[in-house]
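Why Methionine aminopeptidase? Reviewers of the renewal asked for a concrete example.
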Amino acid sequence: MKFLTNLFFPETKEIRKQSGGLPPLRQSRRGIEIKSPGEIEIMRQSSKIVAKVLKEISEIVEPGMTTADVDTYVEKRIREMGATPSFKGYHGYPASICICLNNEVVHGIPSKKKVIRSGDILKVDTGAFQQGFHGDSCITVAVGKVTEKAEGLMRVAEESLYQGIEQVKAGNCLLDIAGAIEDHVKANGYSVVEDFTGHGVGRNLHELPCVFNFRTNKLPNVKLRAGMTLAIEPILNAGSKHTRTLRDRWTVVTVDNALSAQFEHTVLVTENGYEILTDRSLV
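Here is what the prediction returned.
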């Protein structure tokens, strides 16, 4: 789930508490948290659950399923593995995943009426909360045979994530991550969505710092320290970088109806580099 740079989440008259045993909604006031070895081990477990369920989704999604079918599967699997869906009830969000088709950018709400079809590109973003800590990750899946344009966008979106991750190590800064992502995206002719950023993740689903995907002097250029845990999540559009929010006040789409793709990992900063906690190749 994304951090909106100019508005944390859709406005609500009352901020609801998270459901299913999650702590009350709050932004951390502890600043940027450095996790202890014990806390990191817990995050490895919550992140492993997220990685496993997303890997399963990538293997089972098929034309004819609804986006609600995917949500039901993800919630069931997260709970079976002893965790709680991080998103469900978060600021009133009604589901365990954000699921977006084609031109939908972020925060798409699962629906029994929304049928997945061959040729779609499907973004599935989810989190798991276990023993006090969250893991968070997103994938984009090609459903059946997709166009070369869609394949290219997905490929560069995933490449840009790893370009950013390669810059993660103690002593580097957030702009090192952002610059690597932005350069790769623009070199391939796509645009970076600037309305949303990555974020710290741990005790809270969203923590400091904002992990941006483009060069800016409007956000703090934090120096990375070992023990930080970051959700790095570039979002790419095939057309304009600009977005708009639909009447449900959650679903964000591209303004020009162009395709959008995204990949995300929860990443631990180490002294000499990084560890991808949501690595699907390890589950």
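Residues 142 and 151 are 8 Å apart (CA to CA). This is the kind of structural detail the renewal will allow us to pursue systematically.
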